[in-house]
Design goal:
heterodimer, A: alpha+beta, Sulfite Reductase Hemoprotein, domain 1, Alpha-Beta Plaits, 3 domains, 5-stranded mixed β-sheet, 4-stranded antiparallel β-sheet, 9 helices, 11 strands, 20% strand, B: 78 residues, alpha+beta, 4-stranded mixed β-sheet, 2 helices, globular, binds iron/sulfur cluster
Chain lengths: 312, 78
């Protein structure tokens, strides 16, 4: 999996595309919402944005809550002009309305806690699935590099979290307890001079293994945990984990299947979480995890199912 | 140089990011291949500093717990 980010800055559709032009207050004024996958802007693009915001807006750009960029203050009669100028600068307008939104990622690629190249995964999700097609409602995907989940994957329709489950190599462990200090959840203890992991309390963030000065911990199980049905707003719902330790391709497949299932089963104006509640978590899980080995399906406990509810 | 004759740095009173800054300054002093013993508080310093040293290619010679503090002995990359 190797994606060149410049691909996203080469728009395929240049015609006076209206998605991504957000009406703002003020007569005939719009904000151009730009696609910034994983929140990465090149220096060249920043220069173009500065130039375009002066030429078509009011010399400002706004950062959105999902790592996007908007150029405010554009007159509706200048749409064709700015569409062309944006295309020349190599930037696309982002989705708005009932469509997939730009994929968000934390900085897991460079963060010391990261278990995963979050930028690459977010770009790949964009490349494969963000086609601008109309869906029942908005559809948001977020990627996080570890269980700290800085990009809030559990509050997106689909969330992917990089995980690394530790295992102690007892013969190499000196019982120094650095790993005990590294674990935020008190899931490592020293027993008879050796580190022991409490599986029930461990969220597979991998911090203990990364901190071990003697490399006495391996991470034999790594991959991605998959959450679905999260959202935030007037109503809130925390996404439910439906699959675990997925390989990159398995996770990408699952994102595609979830999007297709939502397109086919979602009622108008209904977010994925509501559709899943209507269909039942078990049926949803079976529909979207089809070909995956059973041990990768998360067992949905009654507590997990009870927690997957709409909050106001 | 043996661990016994190592330079000693006490950062038990520092918090992030000064913990790492002090370690970097002390490592500059000891020179390549030199040994430094760092006393640091339990918690965040010991969760991140040995790891950073390891990632940057220095050799960790010993890590011992001393009550609420840790002694971390490191040999600077040659
Ligand atoms: S979620 Fe983990 S990897 Fe990503 S930025 Fe936060 S701490 Fe770093
Ligand atoms: S940090 Fe490594 S060597 Fe020290 S107790 Fe933990 S596993 Fe053992
Ligand atoms: S992987 Fe994370 S949660 Fe699990 S024991 Fe290690 S530090 Fe604790």
């Amino acid at each position: 999996m190797s994606v060149d980010p410049s691909e996203f800055y080469t728009p395929k559709v240049i015609d006076a595309q209206l998605t991504g032009m957000i009406k703002t207050v003020g007569e005939n004024k719009y904000s151009a919402r730009l696609k910034v996958p994983a929140g990465i802007l090149t220096a060249g693009l920043l220069e173009s944005l500065a130039r375009l915001s002066r030429a078509y807006g009011r010399g400002e750009v706004y950062l959105t809550a999902r790592l996007g960029v908007e150029i405010p203050g554009i007159s509706g009669d200048r749409f064709p002009e700015i569409s062309r100028a944006l295309a020349d600068a190599g930037v696309s307008l982002a989705g708005c309305g009932p469509r997939m939104r730009t994929t968000v990622a934390c900085k897991g690629t460079v963060c010391p806690h990261g278990n995963l190249d979050t930028f690459q995964l977010a770009w790949e999700i964009e490349r494969r699935f963000n086609d601008g097609a109309v869906l029942p409602h908005k559809f948001k995907v977020a990627v996080a590099g570890c269980a700290s989940t800085c990009s809030k994957p559990q509050l997106n329709d689909v969330g992917l979290v990089g995980v690394a489950e530790p295992a102690v190599r007892a013969e190499a462990c000196t019982g120094c307890s650095v790993c005990v200090e590294a674990c935020h959840l008190d899931a490592v203890r020293i027993v008879d001079g050796k580190a022991v992991i409490d599986r029930a309390g461990c969220v597979a963030c991998g911090d203990c293994a990364k901190a071990c000065p003697l490399a006495a911990m391996d991470t034999p199980r790594t991959g991605l945990h998959l959450f679905a049905g999260g959202r935030w707003g007037r109503e809130r719902q925390v996404g439910i984990r439906i699959a675990e330790f997925l390989a990159g391709e398995e996770a990408l497949d699952a994102v595609g299947r979830i999007k297709a299932w939502y397109r086919d089963n979602g009622a108008r104006k209904e977010r994925l979480g509501q559709t899943v509640l209507r269909a039942g978590v078990g049926r949803f899980q079976a529909a979207v995890l089809g070909g995956l080995p059973r041990e990768k399906w998360t067992r949905i406990t009654p507590e997990a199912e009870a927690g997957f509810r709409v909050m106001r | 140089m043996s661990a016994e004759s190592a330079a000693i740095l006490d950062i038990t009173g520092e918090v992030c990011p000064m913990t790492l800054v002090r370690v970097r300054m002390a490592l500059d002093e000891v020179g390549p291949g030199g040994v430094l013993r760092i006393l640091m508080a339990a918690g965040e310093p010991v969760a991140s500093i040995p790891r950073t040293l390891k990632d940057e290619g220095h050799e960790l010679l010993a890590v011992e717990r001393r009550g609420d503090a840790f002694s971390v002995t490191v040999r600077k990359r040659p």
